[in-house]
Structures are given as structure tokens and as C-alpha cells.
Amino acid sequence: MRLSRYFLPVLKENPSEAQIVSHRLMLRAGMIKQSSAGIYSWLPMGFKVLRKLENIVHEEQVRAGHIPMLMPTIQPADLWRESGRYDAYGDELLRIRDRHDRDMLYGPTNEEMVTDIFRSHVGSYKDLPLTLYHIQWKFRDERRPRFGVMRGREFFMKDGYNFDLTKEDALHAYNRHLVSYLRTYERMGLQAIPMRADGGPIGGDYTHEFLVLAETGESEVFYDSAVTDLNFGDREIDYDDVAQCQAILEEFTTKYARTDETHDEAKFNDVPEERRRTARGIEVGQIFYFGTKYSEAMGATVQGPDGKPTPVHMGSHGIGVSRLVGAIIEASHDDKGIIWPEGVTPYHCGIVNLKQGDDEADAACDALYASLTALGLEPLYDDRKERAGGKFATMDLIGLPWRITVGPRGLKNGVVELTSRRTGESEELPPQQAVERIAQIYAALG
Ligand code: ATP
Ligand code: MG
Questions:
Q1: In terms of C-beta density within 10 A (0-12 exposed, 13-18 middle, 19 or more buried), how is residue 96 classed?
Q2: pTM score of the predicted model
Q3: Does the pLDDT value for residue 199 go beyond 80?
């Protein structure tokens, strides 16, 4: 993309409405624009990151054997009356009436709808196990929408639902989700710690939230610092392997890590004192096993091996895709702007032309752009007639992990400059080598 043809409305001033750094930087980097409280347009740069996160979530869900689909945002109230949640959900539920006076709602989550799909089409235990998921906009009329996309009213969420014959099978589905979530967050360059949580309105005894540690997080968390040393890495996973998934769950959830909702001071005090940590965290996902709560209320049964109708065991599993954009920025920025992890960056690298209009510099930038593109990479080329200082400031603000700087002086010696956004370190090298270096970095991510 050439910046002269793009739409990147960066702000010079700090927007006064932003209380936390991710909100401020998303506004300043031209990623989002608020349309009303807690509702945002995703401008091209923000949309690009959102799509990258969505793709990672899809890839990891499909890898785990879960099946993508898409359910609507608007749901009939009658389904929610069946589960009892139409009244129980309270003011967060946006209730709507259509022209025929039918009660509808904008879905805050989809347990009822997916259970209805299930009961309409699945009749036998032989069709199990089954896990369906979608990534769709949700609406919750939050009392205090704030912090930009972190606590919006409209937000983008992956929600998945497993249907299993037995509790044991459903707990394997739970573990599979935990493992796939660990992989998902790591690919986004994040450490998200599974913590024992509270069932809330969805209910259930088995539930973990995934928290990214950050001072601006809304949850208070208590943990054994040893959990921060755990690393998923690129291990081979067989998602059908019950013992392997169970072992990973144990590895990542045995050490003390809880939110204030489930915090147990006595258990916490068993952690050696030097490892006891109290901090704040951003909830970026949650998994639940809730048994037969919805299947019994809504008649979602299958014919079991004994021929008798059996309510299925279910769980639901959510990832806050739009909140993650903010969470990643909270975890990765400096005073100049965003620092995107390579796995989610909107563009793979920036190209800064120090002397736009100089034939040689223009030709060198065009050649770099063509070579990078030919390798399947997406550069963002600042081809505007602007001062170098302004171009650098924009690149630092939008946070692409790598920048190639091209100027007549370097070109005389046959070199360009390759700069890491994270370390600030620069290296001079011939243009083709800079291209190869960037290609290698991204190839290593897989
Ligand atoms: P919270 O406690 O932050 O209100 P929740 O526990 O009600 O969230 P879940 O029902 O677990 O949310 O939804 C799954 C994920 O969706 C959450 O882990 C979070 O990342 C995201 N999410 C929930 N509410 C919002 C919101 N208002 N804005 C953005 N993302 C949200
Ligand atoms: Mg939650």
C-alpha cells in the first residue's frame, strides 16, 4: 500500500476522551472512530488488525477440530424465554421490537440459538462430539462503556459451543479449547494466563478466564509468579489425544492464578511469599463447561446408546477479538506509539523514502516494494512529500515492526537502513538483503 493512496487519518494531538494508552493510540493511529458510546467504526488500519486476529482465531479453531459457521446478530426473544435468560440477563440485553411487534434482541452471546440449531438437526449420539463456533458482532448495553474497544457495547467475539454425550467428553472439549486458546494468544504475541473464574450468568462450575497482565486491566488478579514462566511454544498437539490435552490443562492451571471473584486468601498464602503477585489483568477470553443447563431447558437431547433420549453436555468458549486489539497495544507500546508483534501487524514493514521525487530514491523504493510484494509480504510505503521527521513519527506511531529507510546518501553506497521498531536498532545493508531478512523473519512465524 502506498500511503499517498491510503486512508490513515492520524491525529497529532492526544484525544482528551481517551483514558488509557491503547485507546489513545488507536485513535491517534487512525484505527477507529467512535460513532456513539462504545460503538466504533473500524478504519482501514484498525480493520486490518482486526482481520488478522480473526484469521488467527479461525486457524486455531479449525486446527482443534471445531467447525466454523455464522449465526445472525438479531435473535428472537422467544428462544431466550425458553432458557429463562430473557429476563435474567438484565439491562445489558438490547431488546428490539420489529414492525410486527415481535420481541427481538441483539445477541450478547449465542447459547440459545446454537442449542436451537442443534436440537433441530442432531438426533443421535453418533453425531457427537460436535463443536460449532462463529466470529460475530455482539451487543451488550454496558453500563460504563470505556477504554475504547476494550469495553465497547458492540464488540467482535468468537464464541464456540461444544455438544457431547457425557461429562467426560465435554471436559475433553473444555481442555481442547484451553489448549487452542493458549496457542491463539501466543501467536498474537501475548501471554494470556488461564485463571480460575466465576460462572456468572452463563453458569457452571468449570470455567477459566484468560488474562493479559496490564496495569489498566479491569480485573484484580492474584497469582504465583511461576505461571508467567510457562510457555506454550510450538509443540505438536493432537487434539484428539485426551491425555495430552489434560496434561496441558494441568500444566497451565495447577499453579495458583485467580481473579478476585474466586480468590482464596488461604490457598494464595500457600504460594511461597516471594512468588505471590497481585496485579491487574485484561480478560481476553473465557471457557465454560455448564453441563446440561441449556440442553435440559431447551430439549436438546440425542438418542443415547441405550436408545433413550439423553440431554447433551455443553460448554461455551469465547474470545474477545476486538478487545484483543486494545489488549495487544496495552502490552506492546512505548511513548512513541504502538509496537505490533509480527504475528498481527497490519503491514509487514514500512518503507520510508527520505527524498520523494529524487529519481534514484523513488526507483529504489519501487523496487523494494515490488520485491517484498512478490514474496507475499505487504509493505506500507510512505511516498508522501513530507519531511523525514514527520514520516518517522508516523511510522513509530502506527508501529510496524520493521522499517526500511531509503535515501540518496545510502543509495550511493548501495545500502538502505533496516530498523527494528521494538529495539530501535538499525543496520545498513543492500536492499535485496533487507528484503530477504524481512522475508525470513515472517517465514519463521509459519
Ligand atoms: P467482562 O467481565 O469483561 O464484562 P464477560 O466475562 O462478561 O466480560 P464473556 O461472556 O466471557 O465476557 O465474553 C467472552 C469475551 O468477550 C470476554 O473474555 C472479553 O474478552 C470479550 N468481551 C466481553 N464483553 C466485552 C465488551 N463489552 N467489549 C469488548 N469485549 C468484550
Ligand atoms: Mg468472561
A1: middle
A2: 0.96
A3: no
Q: How far apart are CA 181 and CA 446, in angstroms?
A: 18
CATH class entry, domain 349-443: alpha beta
Relative to the alpha carbon of 151, which ligand is closest?
Answer: 1
Nearest listed ligand to the Cα of residue 152: 1
CATH topology of domain 3-338: BirA Bifunctional Protein; domain 2 (3.30.930)
* Contacts of residue 196, Cβ cutoff 8 Å, sequence gap at least 6: 207, 208, 253, 257, 258, 259, 262
- Give mean pLDDT, residues 113-125: 95
Nearest ligand to the CA atom of 37:
1
Ligand 1 in contact with 352 (CB < 6 A)?
no
Pocket mutation for ligand 1, best pick of 53, 198, 283 (most atoms within 8 Å of C-beta): 283
What spacing in Å lies between the alpha carbon of 107 and ligand 1's midpoint?
Answer: 13
User: What is the distance in A from the centroid of ligand 1 to the CA of 159?
Assistant: 11
Handedness of CA 164, 167, 172, 178 (dihedral sign): positive
pLDDT in tens, 2-27: 999 999 999 999 998 899 999 999 99
Predicted confidence (pLDDT) per residue in 156-197, tens digit: 999 999 999 999 999 999 999 999 999 999 999 999 999 998
For the chain, give every domain's residue range.
Answer: 3-338, 349-443
User: Which ligand 1 atom lies nearest to the CA of residue 150?
Assistant: 29
Same fold, 3-338 and 349-443: no
